[in-house]
Amino acid sequence: MNKFQVLTLSGALALGLMGSGASFAQEQEARDHARAAAVAAAKAEGKAESVTLEEPTRSYFDWGAILNPDGRVMSVRSDSVAQEMGIEVGDHILKIDDQVLAEQSLQDLVSYLETLEHDHSFTVTVQRNGQKKTLSGRVKATVIPGWRLEVDVAQTVIDKADEASCGRVSVFVTPPQARDLYPAYFVRIDDDNVLTRRPIVKLSPGKHTVEIHELIDDPWVRRSRSINHPKSIEIDVEADTTYYLAARFVRDKRLSTVNEEYWEPVVWREVEQECESN
Question: Which part of the chain is the PDZ domain (predicted)?
């Protein structure tokens, strides 16, 4: 996958977040696109410790008419600016504002349209049934917000162990959704904030309180982001053991979103794995 494909994937993140009232499903879709872009960026950059992709804010204007090379209108999209102006199939475009088609290529004329800013007024002169008509319109541009995606390739582990021996807690592995288990991310461990981009944490043997936040994307779940809080689970960490955490979807309580009874943090897998503290 090349960088152009990565940018295309990442662009979906900006589109997914355009509306301030974006639903959780849209946010989750944006996360999925961002995750795919992050994986692609990491592969593209090889051994780089971090990768940054970004694009500035931009806009484009699609006025809704398709023209053949000589400027004749082939089709007009419903509810488009072209339709609102009164452009009809069969019209022959003569000029847009003071840009005369006979003096330039159709591509140059279309490029001029695309550079017009939002809410800018413009005119189109057409020939229809042997008569010239001048039609007026106003630009309705689509704005794509700027975005920045930082991918931390090298550092996936936080070492919070105080002793030579240690165990791990992890949200790195995607749990099986067939068992109603969904991804999560760390929020806090033993009253210490954790960077959410670190999916593995080394801990000293003993009891630890781990807070995670759910990333359940089941269509049955309808919750407000304002009341969506992390939950804690206590784990008695043993040396050389990795504990994989997930958010378990409690399907029979899927409508209990106010009290957040629809999910609970769980350890879904334990694996014996050598662990050495730095």
Answer: 50-128
